[in-house]
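Practice set, problem 2.
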Amino acid sequence: MSANIQDVANKAHVSVSTVSRSFTRPNLVSASTRNKVLAIAEQLNFSISKSAAALKSGKTLRIALLISDQIRLWFSASIIQGLNQVFHTAGYDLSIFQISSSKERSEFFTMLPTRRNADAVVVCSFDVNTNEIAQLKSTGVPIVGINCLYPQKCDFDATINIDDDQGARLMARHLIGLGHHNIAYVRTTRDVSLHFSVLQRYHSFIDECQNSGITPTEIVAPANSDRISAIVSMLLGSSIMPTAIACQEDGIAIPLMFQLARSGYSTPKDVSIIGFDDSFYAHETGLTTIRQDPVDIASTAANITLALINAEKVEDQYRIVPAQLIVRSSTAALLKE
C-alpha cells in the first residue's frame, strides 16, 4: 500500500498542510523543514498530485511565457532558465508560447482571454500595443514584462528591462572615442514589432552617432542561417569598408569576426567590432560588448510575479537595469595614416 500525505506528516512530525506547502508553496516553509519533508516523502515513495493542489488552491500552478525569439538562442534560453529556477522551486510550471509571425501573434491574443489557464503572464521582448494589453489584462492575472515596455507606455503590473538606450549609446561613444567615424551598424530584418529590445538599441545607436555628426552605414540582413554571409557580402560590396562595426547582438558579432578574417580583415587591426549581450564565447573571442544578465533579470521577474500572484506589495514595480560596457580586444583606436 502506497504512503499518503498523512503518513509523511506523521513521520516528519509536521502538519498535513506543511507537507502540502513543502511541495506547492515552498517559499512559505523553512528550508530545513522542507528538506526534511521531501527526504521522508522520497523514502516513502510519496508524491503530491499537482492537479489536486491546484484544485485546492484555486490556481493553475502555471505561468505563461510569451516570447518572440527562437528558444534555442542565448537570450531566450537564459530567460527560460532564470524564470524556471524560481517558478519550479515554487511549484509552478512554465508554459512557453513562441510567437514568430504576425499571424501567430494575432491568434494568440485573440484566444488568450478565453483560455485563462495560467496564474500570470510574462511577456518577453514584445512591443505590445494598446489592444493587446487590454486582452492581456482581461485575463485577470498579473502581467509582467521583460525587455518589453517602458513604464510610461504600459499598463502592465510590473516590468524589468535592460537599459537598451544606455547600452547602445555606450557602444557608439566607445567607437567614436576611439576615433572611428566610418561606422556600420548591423541588424536583422526580423519583424521589429516582435523584437522590441533590439529596435530600441538601433534607434539609440543611430541617434548617438548623429549627435556627433556621424551617419552610420546601416547593414540590414535577413534573420536566417545565411545572415552572416549576407552581411559580409554587403560590407565587402560597399565602396569604402567601415573601420568599425556595431552589431545588435553577440550572435552576429562573433561569427562576423571569423567570416571577415577569412576574407583577409583582421580584428581590430583592420576593423573594430562591438556586440551586445556578453553571451557565450564573448570572453573567449575577446569581443568588446555590452553586458546584460538575462538569467538574473528573469529570476527577478519571476520573484515579482510570484509576489503579485500572492497579492503581496511589490516595491519598485518598473525597473531599469543599467548596461555595462565590457572592453576587450576586438576594438582599438583608429590608426591614422
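Problem 2, part (b): a different protein.
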Amino acid sequence: MSKAGVLPPWLVLDPLLRGWLLEDVGRGDRTTNGLLAADVTLGSAKWIAKAPGVIAGLPVAARVFQLLNEKVSFVTTIDEGAFCKPGQVVAEIHGSLDALLMGERVALNLAMGLSGIATLTNTYVEKIADLPARLVDTRKTTPGLRLLEKYATAVGGATNHRMGLDDAVMIKDNHIAAAGGIGEAITRIRAQIPYTLTIEVETETIEQVKEALEYKADIIMLDNMPVDLMRQAVQLIRQQDNGVKIEASGNVTLETIRAVAETGVDYISSSAPITQSKWLDLSMKIE
C-alpha cells in the first residue's frame, strides 16, 4: 500500500527542521564531538523497524541528516506509505559519522511519530474502504507539527481538512452564538470573503440543517448527531441540494466509523488518527 502525501517544499520545512536540530544539539553534541572530528570519519547505518506499521516521514528524516551534512546518503528500502514488518530494514545511511550520530534522535522521532499517525489513519480508512465516505483529519495537531502530521494522515489514506483558519470558512457553534444564528453568520461572512473560499457550517439539529441549506452553505457538518438523526439529515440535504457536501464529526471511533459512513455522508472528520496514535518503533544501528 502506498498512499499519496505531498510534502511542502523544503523552503517551508527547513526552518522547522533546523529549529528542532538546534533544540537537540544546543551548543554542540558533547558525546559525538568528544569522539569524532567533524566530517572526517565515514560510517554507515541501517534503520530497522521493530514493530509492524505504515512507514511515513522518511524523506523528512533524510533531510534532517542532509542539513547536518549535505553529503549524507539516505537510501530508503521501502516505499513511503508501505507496510513494514518487525526486523525489516527501511533505510540505509552512509556519510560522516558525526552527522549520523548527531541527527539520529531528531530524525527518528519525526519518522516514528509520523509513521504512528499513518498507521492508525490507515486502520480507520480500511474500516470504510468499500464505502464512498472519506476520512479527513482536523486541526487538533501538535503546534509546530501540523504540516507534517497532516502529511502523515494523507500517507495513511486520509484526506486533509483545512490546514488553518485562512483555508476556508467553518462556522462553529460559538460563531453561531456570536452572530445570533446560522443565517446571519453566513450572510455577514459571505460579504467579506474571496469567492474562492467555501463556507462550512456546523449543525446539531435538523432545524440548523434546514437553515444552513436555506442560506446556501457549501458544506454542512453533522456534529455529534446520533446515527439515526444523521441519516435523516443526509436524506434531507440530498433531496434539497445534492451539490452540498456533507461531513460527519464528533466522537468517531473505530467501532462507530462504519455506521457513520453508511448514513451516506461524503466525509468523516476525526482527530483520533493524530491525537490517539502511538509511535511506530524504529531504531538506527551503526555498522
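Answer key, part (b): The domain at 10-126+277-286 is CATH 3.90.1170.20 (Aldehyde Oxidoreductase; domain 3). The chain is about 45% helix and 20% strand.
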